[in-house]
UniProtKB/TrEMBL annotation:
Keyword hit for Plastid: no
Residue ranges constituting the Glycosyltransferase subfamily 4-like N-terminal domain according to the UniProt record: 15-180
Lineage: superkingdom: Bacteria
A molecular function (GO) term: glycosyltransferase activity
Keywords from the UniProt entry: Transferase
Lineage of the species this protein comes from: Bacteria, Pseudomonadati, Campylobacterota, Epsilonproteobacteria, Campylobacterales
Transmembrane segments: none
Naturally occurring in which organism (per UniProt): Sulfurimonas paralvinellae
InterPro entries named in the record: Glyco_trans_1 (IPR001296), Glyco_trans_4-like_N (IPR028098)
A Pfam family assignment: Glyco_transf_4
Protein name per its UniProtKB record: Glycosyltransferase
CDD domains in the record: GT4_GT28_WabH-like (cd03811)
SUPFAM superfamilies: UDP-Glycosyltransferase/glycogen phosphorylase
Domain Glycosyl transferase family: 188-357
Length: 378
C-alpha cells in the first residue's frame, strides 16, 4: 500500500520550484498516494490529471507582508487538520512560507514526517534590510524542527548551517531536468524570426535576476537578446530598453509555456542573477545544447558549470572559462560584456561548450534525482 504524501507549495505559477513540483508529481505518483496542497489557485504547469488538490487558502499574491506573517499560525493549524483528515504520513513543503506552515503544523501536534525544501541562498534572498528580510531571518530558526531539510544546492545547505545555525538533518538533492520532455518540445516553431546571433535568458523580472545588467551589456554588441519571464519590473525594463533605443535588439517575450522552443533557436544562454539557490534554467539551457554565461553568485551556477572547482571560490574580477560554461562576477556590466563578446567571436569556444552541454545536463536527469527523493521521503 502506497504511503500518503502531501506536497505543500504556494502555487504552481511559473517558477523554478513550481516546475520541480510538476515533475515530482508525475514521477512520484506510482510510489506515493499524493495530495497537492496549494495556497493560491494558479496552475501554470501541466500536472497528472488525477492529482488530488486541496486549497489551504486562495490568497492574493498582492497580500501585504504583515498579513502573510500574521496568518502563519492559523494556516499551520489548518494544515495540521488537512494532514489529519487525509491520513497523511509524510508532509513535504517547498519555499519559505509553506516551510514555516509545515513546521507550525508540527508544533501544533502533527505527527507526520515533516520535510522542508529550502531553494534559495537564504542570507542573500533576505539581505535587503527591510521588514521582510528581518522577519525571515528570525523565523528561519523554525527550520530546526524539521525532520529533514532538502536543499537544492550545497551552497544553500552551507548557508543555513554557517549563517543561521540550523542543525536539523540536511540532504542536498539537485534539481531535476527532464531531457526527454525538453527534446519533444524544443523543436516547435516560433513566430519570432531570428535575425542575428541571439543571447537568451529566462527568469522572473525582479531586481534579484538583474536583467538590466544584460540589457546594458548588449548595447554595443552585434547581437540580440531575448528575455523570457514576467514580473514586477516588466514596465521598468521596457522603459529602460526604450530609453536606450534597443527596441529591435532586446525583446521581452513574457512567460512562455514552452520556453525550450526559444532556447533551441538561440545561440547562447546568459544569466545575470545577483543570488540563486540552484537555477533550473541553467539545466534547461544545457539540455537544449546551449553554451552558458552566468554570474558567479554564491550558490548554484558554480556547482553546475564548474563542479570540480572549489565551491567556496567566487569571482571578483575577470571571467572564468569553466568546464561547462563561462562565469563572471556578480553585477559587473563590463566583464559580462567581455564574456558575451568572447562567446560571440570565438566560434571554437562556442562549439566546445555546445558539445559539453548535454553531457552535463545528463547528470541531472530525472531518474537519478527521483531515486534520491524517494530515499528521503520514504
Amino acid at each position: 500500500m502506497k504511503k500518503k504524501l502531501a506536497i505543500l507549495i504556494y502555487s504552481l505559477a511559473s517558477g523554478g520550484a513550481e516546475r520541480q513540483v510538476s515533475i515530482l508529481l508525475k514521477e512520484l505518483i506510482d510510489t506515493f498516494d499524493i495530495t497537492l496542497v496549494l495556497m493560491n489557485d494558479t496552475v501554470f504547469y501541466n500536472i497528472p490529471e488525477n492529482t488530488k488538490i486541496i486549497y489551504l487558502e486562495k490568497s492574493s499574491p498582492c497580500e501585504s507582508g504583515i498579513k502573510k506573517l500574521l496568518k502563519l499560525p492559523s494556516l499551520g493549524w489548518k494544515y495540521k487538520k488537512i494532514l489529519q483528515d487525509n491520513k497523511i504520513e509524510i508532509s513535504f513543503s517547498l519555499m519559505t512560507r509553506p516551510n514555516y506552515i509545515n513546521i507550525f503544523s508540527k508544533l501544533f501536534g502533527s505527527k507526520v514526517k515533516t520535510i522542508i525544501s529550502e531553494r534559495s541562498q537564504f542570507s542573500l534572498q533576505y539581505s535587503y534590510g527591510n521588514l521582510q528580510s528581518y522577519t525571515n531571518k528570525k523565523l528561519v530558526k523554525l527550520y530546526n524542527y524539521a525532520d529533514v531539510i532538502v536543499t537544492n544546492s550545497k551552497g544553500n545547505a552551507k548557508d543555513l548551517d554557517e549563517n543561521f545555525s540550523i542543525t536539523a538533518k540536511m540532504k542536498t538533492i539537485y534539481n531535476v531536468v527532464d531531457i526527454d520532455k525538453i527534446d519533444q518540445l524544443k523543436n516547435e516553431d516560433i513566430e519570432l524570426r531570428k535575425q542575428k546571433f541571439t543571447f537568451i535568458t529566462i527568469g522572473r523580472l525582479d531586481s534579484g535576476k538583474n536583467h538590466k545588467l544584460l540589457i546594458n551589456a548588449i548595447q554595443n554588441l552585434d547581437a540580440n537578446l531575448w528575455i523570457i519571464g514576467d514580473g514586477e519590473l516588466r514596465n521598468d525594463l521596457q522603459q529602460h530598453i526604450d530609453t536606450l533605443n534597443l527596441q529591435t535588439k532586446v525583446l521581452l517575450l513574457g512567460r512562455q509555456e514552452n520556453p525550450y522552443k526559444f532556447l533551441s533557436k538561440s545561440d547562447c544562454f546568459v544569466f545575470g542573477s545577483n543570488h540563486e539557490g540552484f537555477p533550473n534554467v541553467l539545466l534547461e539551457a544545457l539540455a537544449c545544447r546551449l553554451p552558458i554565461i552566468s554570474t558567479d553568485c554564491k550558490s548554484g551556477p558554480r556547482e553546475i558549470l564548474a563542479p570540480d572547482n572549489n565551491m567556496d571560490s567566487c569571482l571578483m574580477k575577470d571571467i572564468e572559462c569553466a568546464q561547462y560554461g563561462i562565469l563572471t562576477p556578480v553585477n559587473n556590466e563590463q566583464i559580462m560584456k567581455k564574456a558575451m563578446t568572447l562567446m560571440l567571436n570565438d566560434h571554437n569556444l562556442l562549439e566546445s561548450y555546445q558539445k559539453k552541454a548535454i553531457l552535463r545536463a545528463k547528470y541531472f536527469e530525472v531518474e537519478t534525482m527521483i531515486r534520491q527523493y524517494i530515499e528521503v521521503l520514504d
